[in-house]
Write a structure and sequence with these properties.
The structure is a homodimer of 354-residue chains. Chain A is 40% helix and 17% strand. Chain A has 354 residues and is α/β, with parallel strands linked by helices. Chain A folds into two domains: 111 residues, Alpha-Beta Complex (Aspartate Aminotransferase, domain 1); 222 residues, Aspartate Aminotransferase, domain 2 (3-Layer(aba) Sandwich). Chain A is globular.
Chain lengths: 354, 354
């Protein structure tokens, strides 16, 4: 029997998302927080684990967490779903909306999972290249909306891997004109200070995604979706009942109860980002783009492969991009600890002058 | 704007899976293990948590776990996917196979998620009632296979909520004739001693699901899928890259390293199941069905609502079924600790004689 005849064509035609584990000493490739959570908070997680019964199913739907996050974000808790990372919430959105009919639109380059999950759920994909300043080509997007009415539009705000926030007026123009759902993915919003939360009152088709993966809890896979009541009601039918395990629920609770502490840490990252950017600007042939995130994208006049290899030889892992016409000769580096940033800069200077 | 116009009809037409938290003292409704894992094993989880960095993403694809489970089940590790509970693996299967074309078949009554997730992924559903002995109506199923070639067939082995294992020859007849994938969900196989693992060599269309939720780790959401290499290759494209959080990976590792201890505990449950069944048989008007699982389904000549309410008043939670033509006047009780079973039996006798 040929198993492939049973598989959706969109799945057959794509590659699996690849995230190989590359051994390194300084990990600046995945936009994680460079600091583990403080020992005092970790102890609280451990105390909670000692008390809970691992033989019991997690509480379905995470009602306490929804209340907690609703308080943080100033929304009704029925507007909120907690997921096994934003990845799961993106997939839920794509599963719930009709397939094929009119397509899923997003700018490019952006977060890879929009496209991968759109294909895996049988959607047609409409990619619209960013303009030369890495902002939205709003005219093209509005034309596509008028012409094809995409059922879902994804924006990463700030955008990964470019690092910038798109112009808010451009996103609002699309929110206004779109007859589909517009997702503003704020995975990196803790470093930008910008959010579309205030727009929720005005636009029933707005969905906001949040994540705890960039602020110190990547290991726990916690994402949050916020949207209008009727939409969230439908999405909850698609969400698997026990999607968030008990220990991730405990970690999410910890975040809610200590949000100020996590926020201070994120503010520190934003400060170090500016220092790192200023240092990068001083290096000949390195051109950092403005960033609202916890990472910096920079173009180089040097061969990125040899920079990548040179850094890895010194134990430093970054991410390189070399897609013709999209991102050429670019490197993305996560903002690390002061020591990590120093070592990264030193190694980079060494490689470029040797 | 009317959000509902954007949502798949199959999603609109269904109810969300409901699993309300009902406060109780003795929880015998969800087929969990009645014992938490031993303190010595819990300490090892805690030691591991102390060592890991919560700020780092989990290892994608869980390669070490795949190797470990592959060793336990005697298969190649590339035949294996670890999931966020079997629920996720069922969803991945349903996402990967073509929609609508020919339908998804399963017997009824069975585990609710086959139907819910089939609808959520846009499939047509073909339900075939079990025969009067809760076994497969193999003739009807073979006719449907000849006629409609369902792309996926699901069997729960042992079946939930009836508790029995279907006749293996009937499942094999379907494996032989089916041009689609046949899933044998062995979530409860630790209590039956029966498995389709040896059939994997013979049938490329066989998929086996395993779960750690019934043996003491329900909180952690760990499921395992085993299938042929070409199928697993495609399914991995649909699996979200970071589907299993780091702490669940740690718990799964603990299970692998201490499988014998978990197995002893499961054997204890199987023994207590027989004792509980024998005691139930002695009660007038109570008719327990033979079970290969960690729960017992029984029919009663009494009103199940008043039994349910009476037990709950005493702090004991069980599950009742009253679907005309499918399961009428039935109750499902999880095998508890010796003390829990004793208390449940005493309370049941009290209610029936008062």
């Amino acid at each position: 029997m040929n198993i492939k005849t049973l598989i959706m064509e969109e799945v057959l035609n794509q590659e699996a998302y690849s995230a190989p584990e590359i051994p390194c000493r300084i990990k600046l490739d995945a936009n994680e927080s460079s600091y583990d959570i403080p020992p005092s908070l970790k102890s609280r997680i451990i105390e909670s684990i000692e008390k809970i019964s691992l033989n019991r199913y997690p509480e379905p739907g995470s009602p306490d967490l929804r209340k907690g996050f609703a308080g943080l974000y100033g929304v009704d808790d029925d507007m909120l779903i907690v997921g096994n990372g934003s990845d799961e919430l993106i997939q839920i959105l794509l599963m719930a909306v009709k397939g094929q009919a009119s397509g899923v639109m997003f700018p490019t380059p952006t977060f890879a999972m929009y496209k991968i999950s759109a294909f895996n759920t049988g959607h047609r994909v409409i990619e619209v290249p960013l303009d030369s300043r890495f902002d939205l080509d709003v005219d093209s997007m509005l034309e596509i909306i008028a012409d094809k009415s995409p059922e879902l539009v994804f924006f990463s705000y700030p955008n990964n891997p470019t690092g910038n926030c798109f112009d808010a007026d451009r996103i609002e123009a699309i929110l206004k004109e779109s007859s589909g759902i517009v997702v503003v993915d704020e995975a990196y919003a803790n470093f930008s200070g910008k959010t579309f939360l205030p727009y929720l009152d005005r636009y029933e088709n707005l969905v906001i995604l949040k994540s705890l993966s960039k602020v110190g809890l990547a290991a726990m896979r916690i994402g949050i979706l916020i949207g209008s009541l009727p939409l969230v009601h439908e999405l909850n039918k698609v969400r698997l009942p026990y999607n968030l395990n008990t220990l991730s629920q405990i970690a999410a609770r910890l975040y809610i109860d200590n949000e100020a502490e996590f926020r201070r840490q994120a503010d520190g990252v934003a400060g170090r980002r500016e220092e790192l950017s200023n240092e990068l600007k001083k290096i000949d042939g390195i051109y950092p783009y403005a960033s609202d995130s916890n990472f910096i994208l920079f173009g180089c006049t040097f061969d990125t492969d040899s920079i990548y290899d040179g850094l890895l030889k010194k134990g430093i892992l970054i991410k390189k991009f070399n897609t013709p016409g999209v991102l050429e000769n670019c490197i993305r580096v996560t903002v690390g600890t002061p020591e990590e940033n120093e070592e990264f800069l030193g190694a980079l200077r060494d490689i470029l002058t040797s």
